[in-house]
């Protein structure tokens, strides 16, 4: 859109962007460490290389759809281990023995222990297809190390089954711990959790931007960078100013000091804001006990063409009165679902 150059005393308000940005923790980052496995996990009848985490769960049928992409998953470490002493551990032992085709042996002659556990969860609920009070396959359970202890008479059988499945052996007991082998289970899901998200409170926190575009809304520190937009809006050609809100984009920098990225560094991201149509995109999930919080960040940036004086031909400023950033936090209660009547998943 071309405009004649306005008189020096005039002002033009430009609605540059009213957008929403998203933060998704990738599956490559370790979100935190749990002391144990949450209640509600169910052992898989057979270990699987993939399960559709994030898919809607239909009672009596199972997951519907492919779930969320790998990039929209978080990984949590658990320091606990699973043994046959617990219901989940006993179910996992039976699952692994079936997978290795060893379940026909006397159960007292072979034991399985799963350790170095990881829990793979939905990273951004915004990308799921569920609505309130529907169920979803929320998390999957893996064990990086699976220890098999067996009677000496089963040595050839156990080793032959592991070799046939092509599973790497990471430790061979030999003379140190006779008749024990540790295999790599990092590529196999051994359990999963189906939950229903019951909506709770929605909290909003809106703050106006400073002239520098800075806002702090705990736990986020936010900085709006309007340099590219200003350069775009201030282009001049033969005395005619060219202004295009569709192509002139802001960039916002986000820091969360309570969240760590890969390697333990502070979580930092930047996102490009474009367009003038409101959008709603999640910032990511945080889990505390049996409650999950979903954050959305709404950014409204209005730039004003201010008074200009030579040698400065163009002056663009953030309009403080109408420019703001709003954090919307929606809370959901996590309720575990009974999946006992689901063929192939129980």
Please give a quick description of this structure.
This protein is 9% helix and 48% strand. The chain has helices spanning 87-99, 155-165, 227-233, and strands at residues 2-3, 12-21, 30-34, 41-48, 56-58, 62-64, 73-78, 110-122, 135-150, 169-172, 180-184, 189-208, 214-217, 220-225, 236-237, 240-242, 250-260, 266-273, 282-288, 291-305, 316-318, 324-336. The termini are far apart.
Structure description:
The chain is mainly beta. Helices cover 9% and strands 48% of the residues. It contains three helices and 22 strands. The strands form three sheets. The protein has a 15-stranded mixed β-sheet that branches. It has a four-stranded antiparallel β-sheet with strand order 13-14-17-18, covered by helices on one side. Strands 1-16-15 form a three-stranded antiparallel β-sheet, with no helix packed on it. β19 and β20 (291-305) form a beta hairpin. It is elongated and about 95 Å long. The N and C termini lie far apart (62 Å).
Strand fraction equals over 45%
Global Rg:
27 Å
Give the low-pLDDT segments.
1-31, 236-245
How many β-strand stretches?
Answer: 22
Q: Kindly state the percentage of residues in helix.
A: under 10%
Distinct helical segment count: 3
The gross shape turns out to be elongated
List the secondary-structure elements in sequence, H or E.
EEEEEEEHEEHEEEEEHEEEEEEEE
- Going by helix content, strand content and strand pairing, the class is mainly beta
Please state the average pLDDT score.
77
Largest sheet: 15 strands, mixed
**Kindly, what is the distance between the CA atoms of the first and last residues, rounded to a whole number of angstroms?**
62 Å
């Amino acid at each position: 859109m071309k405009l004649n150059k306005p008189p020096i005393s005039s002002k033009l308000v430009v609605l540059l962007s009213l957008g929403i940005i998203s933060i998704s923790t990738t599956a490559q980052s370790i979100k935190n460490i749990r002391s144990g496995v949450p209640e509600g996990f169910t052992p898989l009848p057979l270990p699987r290389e993939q399960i559709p985490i994030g898919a809607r769960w239909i009672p009596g049928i199972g997951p519907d759809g492919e779930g969320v992409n790998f990039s929209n998953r978080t990984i949590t470490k658990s320091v606990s281990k699973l043994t046959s002493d617990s219901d989940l551990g006993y179910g996992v032992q039976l699952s692994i023995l079936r997978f290795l085709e060893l379940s026909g042996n006397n159960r007292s002659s072979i034991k399985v222990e799963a350790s170095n556990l990881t829990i793979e969860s939905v990273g951004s609920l915004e990308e799921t297809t569920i609505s309130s009070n529907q169920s979803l396959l929320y998390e999957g359970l893996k064990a990086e190390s699976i220890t098999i202890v067996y009677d000496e008479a089963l040595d050839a059988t156990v080793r032959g089954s592991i070799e046939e499945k092509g599973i790497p052996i990471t430790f061979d007991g030999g003379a140190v711990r006779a008749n024990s082998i540790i295999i790599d289970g990092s590529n196999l899901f051994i359990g999963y959790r189906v939950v229903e998200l019951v909506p709770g409170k929605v909290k909003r926190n809106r703050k106006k931007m400073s002239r520098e575009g800075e806002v702090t809304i705990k736990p986020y520190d936010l900085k709006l960078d309007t340099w590219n937009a200003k350069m775009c809006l201030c282009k001049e050609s033969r005395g005619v100013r060219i202004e295009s809100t569709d192509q002139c984009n802001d960039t916002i920098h986000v820091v969360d000091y309570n969240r760590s990225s890969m390697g333990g560094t502070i979580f930092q991201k930047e996102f490009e804001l474009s367009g003038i149509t409101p959008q709603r995109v999640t910032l990511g999930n945080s889990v505390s006990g049996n409650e999950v919080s979903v954050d959305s960040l709404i950014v409204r940036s209005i730039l004003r063409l201010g008074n200009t004086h030579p040698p400065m031909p163009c002056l663009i400023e953030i309009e403080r009165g109408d420019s703001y950033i709003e954090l919307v936090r929606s809370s959901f209660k996590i309720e575990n679902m009974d999946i006992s009547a689901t063929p192939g998943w129980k």
